[in-house]
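Re: the request from the purification team.
They wanted to know what the chain is likely to look like in 3D before they choose a buffer screen. I agreed to run a prediction and write the result into the notebook, where they can find it.
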Amino acid sequence: MGLFDYFSGGGSEEDKRATEIRTGAVAPTRAERQRCWEARDGYFACLDTNNIVDALKDEKAAAKACKGESAVFERDCATQWVTYFKKWRVQDIQKRARLKELEAQGANRLDVNTDFAERK
């Protein structure tokens, strides 16, 4: 390791790439996105096991219960993605609960096609 590497933080190319992804300096590749999603799913599974819905609101409980999964999630995903996914999780759980309530009240599920019709 040279003197410049010592002052610039050194580390492997893989570590530098991971840091660039976390900070948003570079876009992740398909494989890196897949690794992020797997880390997210593992973290969410841990939250589910510990009955934690909102990891931002219940930050201390989430950190205690899912320390290892959180570290992997934060290591493998861009920082903005981590926050986004945590917020998305809460909204998705609320949406699913609301749909269950509506179905219990007799609402009918409609299949919606969001593809645009072909123009002739």
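For the purification team: Residues 1-7 have pLDDT under 50 and may be disordered.
Please add any questions underneath this entry.
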